Amino acid sequence: MAAGRGTRLRPLTYHVPKSLLRLNGKNLIEYNIERLPAEVDEIIFVIGYLGEQIKNYFGNEFAGKKIKYVKQNKLLGTGHCLHLCKDLLGERFLVLMGDDVYGADDIKKCLSYEQCMLVKEIRGKFAGGRVQLDSSGHLNNIIEGVHNRSKNLVNTGLYVISDKFFKYDLVSIKDGKEYGLPQTLVKVAKDYPVNIVKADFWLQINDLAQMKRAEKLLR
């Protein structure tokens, strides 16, 4: 998913899409592509803001993987984003954010499950999606907002999902202005278990401070 405007990283994103920002000579998408296992042989980019730059850079094949593109003209959320790809997807697929950086080992672990969500265990105050588990340790709920607890599981935005997802109506969020992928996946999880994997490596890059930190860690 690489359609967003990256407003919190302005002025860097005035003329370049966030997922093409470079750290140590590579853009954010390249870091993720090189971490994908060989079994992933095709990538679908959902593009929007300055999306032609992404198409021009990656073309129809990159690093031995076929590339396709889907345009999200209106930023109606990650659930809407995934639905745009419905006709191009198989029975099971990996979904990840194009502007975060994930670990190869974590991706491999997630792909060992039929359905999965990658989470990060953190401590203290944070804003985002707090993941709640059921008695079996599977996905039960996601609570968005600001949280301040001794220990939290945070949604990283990486999922393994089956095509059963498309049987369910998208969940509306943000006063009906967007449709959430993780919120819809919670509905799916009531009928088809969604496993949870704790991430060893995840770089969320939302502002200039996080970008500088990511640059050091990736170096």
* Mean pLDDT over the full residue set: 90
> Which strand order spans the largest sheet, edge to edge or round the barrel?
6-9-8-12
Query: Strand fraction band?
Result: 35-45%
Apparent shape: globular
Distinct helical segment count: 6
- Which CATH architecture would you pick? Alpha-Beta Complex
Explained architecture:
The structure is a single chain. The chain has 219 residues and is of the alpha+beta class. It has one domain (7-218): Spore Coat Polysaccharide Biosynthesis Protein SpsA, Chain A, CATH 3.90.550. Helices cover 21% and strands 36% of the residues. The chain is built from six helices and 13 strands. It has helices at 28-33, 51-58, 78-83, 104-110, 181-189, 208-218; strands at 22-23, 26-27, 42-47, 61-62, 65-71, 92-95, 101-102, 116-133, 139-162, 171-173, 178-180, 195-198, 202-203. It has a four-stranded mixed sheet. The chain has a three-stranded mixed sheet with strand order 3-5-4, covered by helices on one side. It has a two-stranded antiparallel ribbon with strand order 1-2. Strand 8 and strand 9 form a beta hairpin. The radius of gyration is 17 Å and the shape is globular. 35% of the residues are buried. The mean pLDDT is 90.
